[in-house]
Design a protein that fits this description.
The protein is globular, with a radius of gyration of 16 Å. It has about 210 residues and is an alpha/beta fold. The protein has nine helices and eight strands. The chain has one domain: Alpha-Beta Barrel (TIM Barrel), CATH 3.20.20.70. Strands 1-2-3-4-5-6-7-8 form an eight-stranded parallel barrel, surrounded by five helices. Helix 1 runs parallel beside helix 2. The two termini are about 20 Å apart.
Length: about 210
């Protein structure tokens, strides 16, 4: 079961990430994706453990970005793999059976490749681009085209500059849910708005299962 709203942690320091995760959990987020790009790999485990102490208190799921070894070591709920990370097949060999795998896709071809692997959901984007992101914005039309072509039960989680103003159109595109960073960090009260628009209560999650080959 994959929640429809994911918070991608944000902050200039580890302390800021943890403070923002605390605020997100207090505001009702059901899944936090811990972004650890801002620190060295040797510090990943400590940050992940500190984040888990917060999310466990709120019974919020914690997903580790990129580093599946950390996800295994501290028994996070799963790992999210970006383009230059280990392949889902390699990660699956090391993860516990109950841990989930999400993976990034930017194109239909990326998605087609991912759904042949043992993943639980696909992070599809960016919905819109920023000055720091060179990937082509997919927008609503891109989401529609990819969702229609795939016709898959694997949940597609849209990401990339998404705000509450985008939710209605995104849901109509066939996307299962969204991952948000900037809009939530700017206003943690927006989590309630996102959840209401997504109907993302604990009893209305996107359900998905896969069979191991």
């Amino acid at each position: 079961m994959i929640p429809k709203l994911h918070y991608i942690s944000k902050g200039n320091t580890s302390k800021e990430h943890l403070e923002n995760i605390q605020k997100a959990c207090s505001s009702g987020i059901e899944l936090v994706q811990l972004d650890m790009k801002h620190i060295s790999k040797k510090s990943h485990l400590k940050l992940a453990e500190d984040a888990k102490a917060i999310t466990s208190h709120f019974q919020t799921r914690l997903i580790i970005t990129s580093n599946y070894k950390v996800a295994v070591a501290m028994k996070a709920d799963g790992v999210y793999l970006e383009n230059n990370d280990a392949s889902p097949a390699v990660a699956r060999e090391h993860l516990y059976a109950w841990q989930t795998i999400g993976a990034t896709a930017h194109t239909l071809q990326d998605c087609e490749k991912m759904i042949t692997k043992e993943i639980d959901y696909i992070g599809l984007g960016p919905f819109r681009t920023s000055t720091s992101n060179d990937d082509k914005a997919l927008g609503v039309n891109g989401f529609i085209a990819i969702a229609d072509a795939l016709a898959t039960e694997t949940p597609l989680i849209g990401f990339g500059g998404i705000t509450t103003n985008d939710v209605d159109d995104i849901l109509k595109s066939g996307i299962s849910g969204i991952a948000v960073s900037n809009a939530i960090t700017a206003d943690f009260n927006s989590i309630k708005t996102f959840n209401h628009m997504l109907k993302a209560s604990a009893t209305e999650e996107q359900r998905h299962s896969f069979e191991k080959k």
